[in-house]
Design goal:
Elements lengths: L3 H7 L5 E6 L5 H16 L3 E6 L17 E2 L4 H10 L2 E5 L11 H6 L3 E6 L10 E4 L6 H13 L6 H14 L10 H12 L4 H9 L4 H14 E4 L4 E6 L1 H6 L10 H6 L6 E8 L2 E8 L5 H9 L2 E2 L3 E6 L3 H16 L6
Parallel strand pairs: 1-2, 1-4, 2-3, 4-5, 5-6, 8-9
Antiparallel strand pairs: 7-8, 9-10, 10-12, 11-12
Helix pairs in contact: 2-5, 2-6, 5-6, 6-7, 6-8
Bound molecules: guanosine-5'-monophosphate (5GP) and manganese (II) ion (MN).
Amino acid sequence: MKDTKALKDFLQSPKKIVITTHANPDADALGSSLGLHHFLTRLGHKVSTIVPNSYPDFLEWMPGNSMVINYEKSKDASDKLILEADLLFCLDFSGFGRIKGMRDVAEKTPAKIALVDHHLNPEIKPDYNFWNDHSAATAELIYDLIIDFSGKNAIDKDIAECLYAGIMTDTGSFKHPSTTAKIHRIVADLIDLGADVNKVSRLIYDTNSLQRLRFLGHALAERLKVDESYQVAYFVIGEEDFKDFRLKQGDTEGLVNYALSIKGIVVAAIIIQRENEIKLSFRSIGDFAVNKFAEEYFNGGGHKNAAGGMSELSLEETEKKFKELLEKNILNTRIK
Ligand code: 5GP
Ligand code: MN
């Protein structure tokens, strides 16, 4: 990794470091942040991990969870930490638009910036760059960084489980095209270093509430729309579903994959209304680049086959816009 030496020189003496990640943190965002947090703390630095907003309960088992600062709940203290930091690590995002309310202070801080990310088209211009869009997960990049810095022995069970969680989820449990031989070798190392893969998998995937499973049945039966002529399937989830099923943050995660699992479907989406915003998630198989689609029409981005964005229209208008745009965009790139 090309900037390792420069960063290592900078970190020769103890530094004040803030780690942050994108809003609505997922397992890769939080796992890579906490894995790095433990590593840097053990090197003798003063480390704070600040997330832009809350994350789902099924990530709370991660070692170091109690140290994580939620920016929305501790704005003043967070601003102070960020403004006084020597180094700000930006993990699993590469545009300041992804950290919501933290954007201003992140752009203002005199701290040096280190970017560790695997999303396309990075906007941030870092002092230390560990960006690589061929990586399956930011946790893979953190693994590489730790190895470059200190070798395998620096990875203990806590770090191994945080990084494993990021890799497992961002590869779709080792199913996405990003699942390389290298990823399996890294995971083999993480297991050797103490990661309990069965435990991590159960904590993330097998902690459903009954309400969530009932909602899944309801969404599949009532909220899934399929347009075979465009090979598209999508869910539209309104606020009433959140109320009726007492859904919590994270309860809609993974739902979009059911739409993509239908035979013949190559583009899947979910359009969700939550409070005052509409969030969209896109998935595709093959050539249709959902990150470009999300970036151009829904103020978003992501990866070629998994992306997300926002809409300021109503739920109905957003669905209409989505359908019209598909007609325009999808015909040329459809898989036969
Ligand atoms: P998900 O659909 O699981 O929320 O996100 C899928 C991928 O798209 C992730 O890599 C995520 O970082 C990215 N993504 C999701 N929402 C947004 C967004 O609003 N803006 C950008 N730039 N990327 C997003
Ligand atoms: Mn990621």
